Amino acid sequence: MRRALELAHSVWGTTHPNPMVGAVLVEDGKIVGEGATAPDGGPHAERLALLARGKKPRPGAVLYVTLEPCSTEGRTGACTEAIMAAEIKTVVVGTTDPNPAHAGRGLELLRAAGIEVISGVLEAECRDLNLIFNHWITTDTPLLAAKTATTLDGRIACRTGDSRWITGEVARADVMRWRRLFPAIAVGAGTLMHDNPRLTSRIAGREEWCPVRFVFDGLLRTVTDRNLPAVYTDEFKERTIVVTTPHGGMGYVRKLKDMGVGVWVLPSTTQRVAWPDFRRKCADERIAGVYFEGGAQLLSQLLRDAQIDYLFSYRAPMILGDDRAKPMMNGLRTEKLVNAVRLTEVHHNVLGDDMLARGRVVYPEKLFVDETVFSLR
Question: Rounded to an integer, what distance in angstroms lies between the CA atom of residue 156 and that of residue 236?
């Protein structure tokens, strides 16, 4: 199963909106076929592992797969049918498919066909592998994940704005890895104007990768300056989409489109984009996950609106101890711990001198925002 996980990781970020899956075919204790999910529309891992064998497996062959084999036809045919046709005798599964159309049905079909099924092997690792897909397939909306890099006292910059670099090289390299997983990255207008980030994944020894790059700019402030941000002019500009409102001005919208930059003008009575509209638009475009990298204003807005589904929190071993240093997020009035926003299914990693805590965000029943109480249920 660990080899199957390695194979799934080998297609990191290339299978959206489908899950990453690895499969290993074993005969007499030896691996004779391997497969990992092809890009959307291509063969699934199980079929590729069987094809790699080149002929019908020997009696007693065992198939290891990180995710329950699909049981619906789709574009590539049901993997359960391929497994039964190959007369596999034992299938070892990492985790059940969260897809309501499958959700254990594939395992039932295999067992009904007389195939031994062993499930739950390295289940937590197999489930964590597809955190984007798991959310997408069960909610029909993209996973909105926030990334922060802070000091131990929760600050993202000094009072002067100095913030490079809070975390070290190892942690920043880990961010590049997660950028490669998510189909889209997002920043606010302030971050774009202050930092002029490239918003690509740059991993040593690999070609630079550019996901969809969202810029949230309700008034199109980032277009008014002659010195335009790099994401509007570089070789990946067609991968950039500015998310704005009707208040930004159609002249600037035309300017962006003339440069080859995408624009989503979403309805709004204010300069702020409505999150349900953004989620629906992403779903229409089959964008299964968005990695929000800031700044503090955008992330605070997401938090106040209870829209952060997942959080990546990097912490560096330093303390500013300054009330005027910039906080990671604000806007809540949490007077009791029971009203705190929490993480669940938490993972902890040490990255050089820094630490990463990541997990699914769970909101309290009542979220206190400034002087108003909003019920979330």
Answer: 28
